[in-house]
Amino acid sequence: MTHHRPRSIHLPYSVDEAGDRNHFFENHWKRVALDLLKSHAGVLDGLSLLDYGCGRGETLEYATAYGIKPCGLDVDPECVRIARSKGDAELLNLADPASQVGVASFDVVTCFHVLEHVDNPKEVLTMLGRAARRYVLTAVPNLRLISNLRKPRVESGRVNEGHLQSWDHAHFRNLAENHCGLRIISWGFDATILPVVSELCKRVFGVKTLLKLETGLFKRWFPFNGNSVIALMEPTVEAPDQQRIP
Fold this sequence. Notes:
By secondary structure, this protein is an alpha/beta fold. It has one domain (about 20-190, about 225-235): Vaccinia Virus protein VP39 (Rossmann fold, 3-Layer(aba) Sandwich). The protein contains 9 helices and 7 strands, in the order αβαβαβαβαβαβαααβ. Strands 3-2-1-4-5-7-6 form a 7-stranded mixed beta sheet, with helices on both faces. Helix 3 links the parallel strand 2 and strand 3. Helix 1 (about 20-40) runs parallel beside helix 2.
């Protein structure tokens, strides 16, 4: 059974966090998620980790810095090549991903901004929950972004054509806990953009100050309106439909 659509071309093969605010966000949610894991689990030394949809491999690099032993899977051969400079990475077998992922194979399984690209997120998330002995850590785009206050009835320009679905926190909890055999331990929060206010701050104070506000004060004001829904979870009982998954 195929679990994954090929990544859309929106994923750049190199990023410049200092020069591109969106590039900063793209890695920031990975750091926030791993910090959330650290704050809950404490000592991470020696834990094994699978990053499903590892992209360029930043998560492998960040996890290694925590003493974790990571490996990654991705559908893009060029991403796999790049990721191998940061850790172990292999090409994902789309025809049979479950055989690569395994059951109770890793202490931690991460999956950052991948579920929105797959045809069957329930099956993928259930598979990842089965693979994890202790924790599943995910991030997906947040459907509850604050609307553009200047043109609230106009469709947002942030829509990504490669995204097949999206969630807010309540609907992601429903997916994880009622359908995938997982329990949410804690939410993580990355950055909150305030459309008019952020643009004004950028013009007056510059990008560096804006990022401090969006990852600091704005996030504290509106934590559930951030860029990502970040969830730290643990496997519980078998999901209702788990027996159908190879």
